[in-house]
Design a protein that fits this description.
Blueprint: E1 2-6, E2 9-16, E3 21-26, E4 30-34, H1 39-50, E5 54-59, H2 66-75, H3 79-83, E6 87-90, H4 96-102, E7 108-111, H5 123-143, E8 148-152, E9 166-167, H6 181-198, E10 203-208, E11 210-212, H7 222-229, E12 234-235, E13 239-244, H8 245-256, E14 263-267, E15 270-273, H9 274-284, E16 292-293, H10 296-313, H11 321-326, E17 332-333, H12 336-342, H13 349-367
Parallel strand pairs: 4-5, 4-7, 5-6, 7-8, 8-10, 9-17, 10-14, 11-13, 12-16
Antiparallel strand pairs: 1-2, 2-3, 13-15
Helix pairs in contact: 1-8, 5-6, 9-13
Length: 369
């Protein structure tokens, strides 16, 4: 191990044997996290404060911080003490001045904030907010001379290859096959980050697949546990990649502590068919396995019926046209790049599901009293 002095910064670094790269560990730094109330952001905050980092988190005025406290309680007996170490500041990604204020004194940024939806009615707002918000973030980061910027994208921002061919970081975007507004927003947001890298900002991008982890059970993969608990027995012909939220956070922090810049990494543990994944979820909470296949015709009927139901009742649109299309495609993602460069070992999907189900069962019992 060697040390170098740069101004008021003391930097320790060591060589990663297999990759031949240097990993930097900053002893004095200040971190800003956006999207800290989401699944990835809240888990990231827990890891950062647990490691003793100085952390500031950007929040909207209406944000619910109780969900962050709950996630902290999953992993630490001193959850409230850790939570109090976060410096929360109000701001909005659409308000550049609030971003520059939030970045005062900051050295590293984790940008986790984004609208996530496969509902077409959210499309225009999602593209506008995600892309403009990211552009505002990187522009402010350049002005504030941020040392390094980690952008949380998604595998949705990559190209789509049919017939189960593996998608890599080099897969080209295809407008004809990437039909969801969410995918478009992620692709265009990445373009803003790459543009900033050309203007001198050190960046890394992570592209997680479907993220498994405890938190708000009405969002992200938590909805799958809700459905399983209600006795959902249907599955579709497609498949996709899955990854534990703890591995997403680990990959982000490892990349930010390294000298790797201007690269992106698929973060995905394993690829599974929906039938296999739903079966693992159902088994984890002791529910019958899925045994009814929803073919193309059934899905075409159901998403239209669900849209009509949503319009008449004002309730949430559950099965959208986009979800129906994606559910029939086999998407396979390669994790070889991050495994090779960071010597990264992923948590098996089955273990992720088992660990998440423990918290789901406990929370469900609490709420059912």
């Amino acid at each position: 191990m060697q040390n170098s002095q740069t101004g008021s910064w003391v930097v320790s670094y060591f060589r990663l044997p297999a990759a031949g790269r240097y990993k930097f560990v900053f002893r004095r730094f200040m971190i800003l996290v956006t999207g800290g109330t989401g699944l990835i952001g809240s888990h990231l905050l827990h890891v950062l404060v647990q490691q003793g980092g100085k952390v500031r988190a950007l929040r909207r005025k209406e944000s619910n911080l109780d969900e962050v406290r709950k996630i902290f309680s999953y992993y630490s007996p001193n959850a409230n003490e850790l939570f109090r170490k976060i410096e929360w500041v109000e701001g909005d990604m659409m308000d550049v001045s609030s971003l520059e204020d939030a970045m005062e004194g900051i050295t590293h940024i984790y940008h986790c904030a984004a609208i996530v939806s496969l509902n077409p009615k959210h499309g225009k707002k999602m593209i506008r907010n995600n892309v403009t918000g990211t552009a505002n973030m990187v522009n402010a980061a350049i002005v504030k001379k941020i040392l390094k910027f980690c952008h949380v994208s998604s595998v949705a921002g990559l190209g789509i290859l049919k017939d189960g061919k593996e998608i890599t970081e080099e897969t080209h975007w295809n407008e004809q096959t990437n039909f969801s507004a969410y995918a478009i927003s992620k692709y265009l947001s990445e373009n803003e980050v790459w543009r900033a890298s050309q203007e001198g900002l050190n960046v890394v991008i992570v592209n997680p697949s479907v993220v498994i982890g405890p938190g708000n059970w009405r969002r992200s993969s938590g909805d799958i546990f809700i459905g399983a608990n209600k006795g959902l027995r249907w599955y579709t012909s497609g498949g996709i990649g899955y990854v534990d939220v703890r591995d997403v956070v680990k990959s982000m922090t490892n990349l930010m502590e390294s000298d790797i810049n201007n690269e992106r990494f698929i973060v995905s543990s394993e690829n599974h068919s929906y039938k296999t994944f739903f079966g693992l979820v159902n088994a984890s909470i002791k529910k019958p396995l899925p045994n009814k296949k929803a073919g193309k015709l059934i899905l075409e009927i159901v998403w239209r019926f669900d849209k009509l139901r949503s319009m008449l009742t004002g309730s949430r649109h559950v099965l959208t046209k986009e979800i129906a299309k994606y559910s029939q495609i086999n998407l396979s993602y390669s994790n070889l790049k991050i495994k090779k460069i960071l010597q990264f070992d992923f948590i098996p999907v089955e273990q992720s599901i088992k660990d998440t189900s423990i918290h789901f069962i406990a929370d469900y019992k609490i709420h059912s009293k």
